[in-house]
Design brief:
There is one protein chain. 31% of the residues lie in helices and 26% in strands. The chain is of the alpha+beta class. The longest helix is centred in the N-terminal third of the chain and has 21 residues. It is globular and about 70 Å long. The two termini are 26 Å apart. Bound molecules: flavin-adenine dinucleotide (FAD). The site of flavin-adenine dinucleotide has 41 residues, from helix 1, strand 2, strand 15 and helix 9.
Length: 369
């Protein structure tokens, strides 16, 4: 297959940065385009837990996420782990018996699939892993040692910086307004909000929650779910926790040296009731202080409601749309976990025309025209 002359990557979150970095290091001429600043979309408002333990809904999705975890480890060896990669494992425990039975059943399934999981008592966890956490001494706590978390904004900046240093171009603060096609229906031009236009051979739609809008520019319908989530950052130094964890009613992880990120699916459910992000952040903070009392006096620094980029059936949409040659999608929830693997596999498909078996179930064509 002929190497594309020029690839426009539309959207520079974790997906766009990963695809563009892989394309650039394999010799393609890449132009990153972002309406805002790289890494400041959903990627900056994510719980950012790298895992496959929450992905048991189908075996192929689980396998892709396991490959995603490995891809982070591989990437850290190539670009270095500094300031973005935290492979510190993940803790989960429940507050009531039904939830506990569910978690233990999932852990059993995962162990059967060869996924590493260990069980500790709450007392062990306080003694060996997380002294600041008020988990009851007799609680059964699952520890997933191969999981971790990522500082999404730092990862994106690192990938873009490396790609630009080796010849890629970055256009930030300009939005894609239109995509033009040639007589054979293939993508030919990208029109930008500053009035300029780029000639291209390939475009990658990595616009996250706006991916459906970008697909619409080539008259494609990419159905997406509306599933917003609220995330709060708490300022605290020193940071009292060392890893990502799901405690009853609250998820927490460190966010560098001076803050903690909080999220909860229970609080996300209140977004539709019209509560302000600030009020929802106070509820997150209230739940967090029950688990880590030290967080009680720390201020809420930031709170934001963000939209998950989820294709309607819940699975990634990754690959070409054959009716529009040159147009590719990289749209997925769990994009923090999947960014590096999707970036590697999609770049390879763009450059060689060969599709990796891991992507079999996630073809954009499954959504009818
Ligand atoms: C509350 C919450 C919790 C989450 N927790 C996890 C988790 O624990 N683990 C996990 O793996 N995933 C998690 N996710 C999902 C994950 O964060 C996303 O899948 C991932 O960040 C998506 O990255 P992206 O690059 O597709 O999108 P984004 O980071 O949003 O990047 C898209 C970019 O496109 C740009 N853009 C949009 N329109 C245009 C246009 N017209 N022209 C040019 N640029 C444009 C935007 O400015 C943006 O920078 C969570 C998401 C949320 C909301």
């Amino acid at each position: 297959m002929k190497q594309p002359e020029r690839v426009a990557v539309i959207g520079v979150g974790v997906l766009g940065a990963s695809v563009g970095w892989n394309l650039s290091r394999r010799g393609a001429q890449v132009v990153f385009i972002d309406a805002g600043r790289p890494g400041e979309g959903v990627t900056n408002w994510s719980f950012s837990w790298v895992n496959a333990s929450n992905k048991t809904v189908s075996r192929s999705y689980f396998d892709l996420n396991v490959a995603g975890m490995s891809a982070h480890r591989d990437l850290a060896k190539v670009i270095g782990p500094d300031s973005w990669w935290y492979p510190s494992g993940h803790l989960r425990w429940a507050g009531e018996p039904t939830a506990q039975a569910r978690f233990l059943k999932t852990a059993e399934l995962l162990a059967g699939w060869g996924y590493r999981v260990e069980e500790y008592t709450g007392a062990d966890v306080r003694r060996r892993l997380e002294p600041a956490v008020t988990v009851p001494g007799e609680a059964r706590v699952l520890f997933y040692p191969d999981e971790g978390w990522v500082h999404g904004r730092h990862l994106v900046r690192r990938l873009v910086h490396e790609a630009v240093a080796s010849g890629a171009e970055l256009r930030s603060g300009v939005a894609v307004r239109d995509l033009g096609t040639g007589g054979d229906g293939s993508v030919r031009t990208v029109a930008l909000s500053d009035g300029s236009s780029l000639d291209v051979d390939v475009v990658v739609n990595a616009a996250g929650p706006s991916a459906s809008h970008i697909a619409g520019l080539i008259a494609r319908h990419l159905p997406m779910r509306a599933e917003p989530g609220v995330v709060a950052r708490i300022s605290c130094a020193p940071v009292p926790i060392h890893r990502a964890m799901h405690a009853p009613h609250i998820e927490m992880r460190p966010d560098g040296d001076a803050s903690v990120v909080l999220h909860s699916r229970e609080i996300d459910a209140l977004i539709d009731t019209g509560e302000e992000p600030g009020q929802l952040a106070r509820l997150l903070h209230e739940s967090a202080r029950h688990v880590v009392p030290e967080l009680g006096d720390s201020p809420i620094a930031q709170a934001r409601t963000a939209h998950r980029p989820i294709p309607a059936d819940g699975f990634p949409s990754v690959g070409p749309v054959p009716s529009v040659p040159g147009y590719y999608e990289a749209v997925t929830h769990s994009g923090i976990t999947l960014g590096p693997v999707v970036g590697r596999l999609l770049a390879s498909e763009i450059l060689t025309g060969e599709r990796d078996a891991l992507l079999t179930d996630f073809h954009p064509q499954r959504f009818p025209p």
